[in-house]
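Complex record, two chains
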Amino acid sequence: MLRSFYKYAALGLAAVGAVSAVSAPASARPSVIADNPAYITIVAVMHPLPQYDQQVGTELKGLAAQVRAEAGNVAFMPTRNAADNSYVVYEVYRSEDAFQKHINSAHTVAFNKTLVNQVQGGKSDVTKLKTIF
Amino acid sequence: MPNKKDYKTVVAVINALPGHDEEIEQGLGDLALKVKAEPGNITFKPYRNLSESHSYIVYEIYQDETAFLQHVNAHYTRSFNKMLETTAKGGKSQVLEVSDIL
């Protein structure tokens, strides 16, 4: 139940949950994305080559549906940075094992293969994060 | 009722000057408590960057542009940003304003 709330809120699909989360006192309000020191959080940044700008966005949308269906995924939020035409993805996994399963999944391997010819440097720039609160 | 399409998402990057990590971490902790209490804040998650020393990343979502501007203009945000002038490289955080593509 709790996991379900976090997952849907993170996906922006739990309209009712989101409203109550926003209107509730901060002390009683769960974070939209659960705080858990075991979680693995990364930010991946991609700078598409000009001719692949739209295509990378489309592929990211397809990947999002598959990653969000992974049992170990908590959040996968693909965004666009209009300032430099990059894509920025905020991702949270339940554990290192869940993250490794994501990395080695067929859909992630296929996506990363397409990036080889479509983005600067041939891959996304992945930054691993550690929550400090 | 908040509309997800109106959500304002930012990724803030802070690179600490040598010797100022503790001050920035403490400042982020204090700031987080206050920002999470803002009615228009959806999430505020500060992280240490494991790939780069002395670097911090904050993932933030606000209900809409108005809520974001209220956050930016809040006295505690101004105080935090003032502190960064002497503790962070470039004297401030780098703020990426991004939009959901889904």
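Note: Chain B has one domain: 15-98.
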